[in-house]
Amino acid sequence: MGNSRVTVREIARLAGVSVATVSRVSNGTGQVSEEMRRRVLDAIEEYGYRPDHLGRALAAGRHGALGLVFPGLSGPYFTELIQGFESAAVPARASVHILCTHMREDSDEQVLEMARRVDGIAVIGGTISEPVLLRLAELVQVVVLAGQGAGPVPSVSVDNTSAMSRLTRHLLVDHGLRDLAFVGTPEGSPDVSERWAGFLAAHRELALTPPAEPVRVAMQQPDGVLAAERLLRDGAGPQAVVCANDEIALGVLVGALGRGLRVPGDLVITGFDDAPMAALVSPPLTTVRQPVRDLAAAAARLILDAVAAPGATAPDSIVLPTELVVRRSCGCPTGTPPGGIGQ
């Protein structure tokens, strides 16, 4: 049981730190050195200190809850995002409310209603319109996750364009391929739009002609199977299929193997995300690793820090690094990519 008689000031004195440091450690927000964190945690454990989060939240007019707004929940990508978001929210004693719009007609109203029950919201890029995003930001702290913010709204993202350009150049330069297809729908998804732009940029930088249009499908494995049927039905498909995410790529792989094609002998396939299954299929999937959990955790921390310091300067947007991971689906021996690229 926690000892309500031990105050935060006493814990600060016992640990030899400031009250603010104790608050940051107990809330899981802000930057604290490992040595100071350990001293505070030792004092908390020894004296049974438990902060009155509910009372503080009520006094500050807070809910002790954060919101996540997704277009849907299917697939491992959203599971990773939720786990990453919770990894920052739970230590701060914040519950997580999830809203899936599923492109409902009343999704804007649903998101604005959520703002009445939470202290801040992370919104997947492209899920709500820019006017609604800006209106939402007038009500609570908002961060755009995996997309670009608008006006004062910060974002946490990766540089999809450069990452996809690097992957595409690997196929064009290191493997000498020329006939590449891009599978994914740029419209409505900032991530896919940027990846399509990177695919096109790599061709243009090498004075090569890219395909005029992508193969437009949704983002799940069955959609990849459908894409494979469209691309390979006449027996004269492209040399390589560059997919907007790993789920599509795994579907294309199933479709290609089902037609008796050898991957990568007859067809090269690549993805994006480095989902857990990407390394487990045969052949293992060449892809771009993005830190999905870290993206969501960073978004939660931005919100928590802003809520803890109302009136402070709006936080800066964050761009996290990616890594090209080459495996056998592009023709590289796993672990020995040409030119030292990737893994």
From TrEMBL:
<dbReference type="GO" id="GO:0003700">
    <property type="term" value="F:DNA-binding transcription factor activity"/>
</dbReference>
<dbReference type="InterPro" id="IPR000843">
    <property type="entry name" value="HTH_LacI"/>
</dbReference>
<keyword id="KW-0805">Transcription regulation</keyword>
<dbReference type="InterPro" id="IPR028082">
    <property type="entry name" value="Peripla_BP_I"/>
</dbReference>
<keyword id="KW-0804">Transcription</keyword>
<dbReference type="Pfam" id="PF13377">
    <property type="entry name" value="Peripla_BP_3"/>
</dbReference>
<keyword id="KW-0238">DNA-binding</keyword>
<protein>
    <submittedName>
        <fullName>Transcriptional regulator, LacI family</fullName>
    </submittedName>
</protein>
<dbReference type="InterPro" id="IPR046335">
    <property type="entry name" value="LacI/GalR-like_sensor"/>
</dbReference>
<feature type="domain" description="HTH lacI-type">
    <location>
        <begin position="6"/>
        <end position="60"/>
    </location>
</feature>
<dbReference type="GO" id="GO:0000976">
    <property type="term" value="F:transcription cis-regulatory region binding"/>
</dbReference>
<dbReference type="Pfam" id="PF00356">
    <property type="entry name" value="LacI"/>
</dbReference>
<dbReference type="InterPro" id="IPR010982">
    <property type="entry name" value="Lambda_DNA-bd_dom_sf"/>
</dbReference>
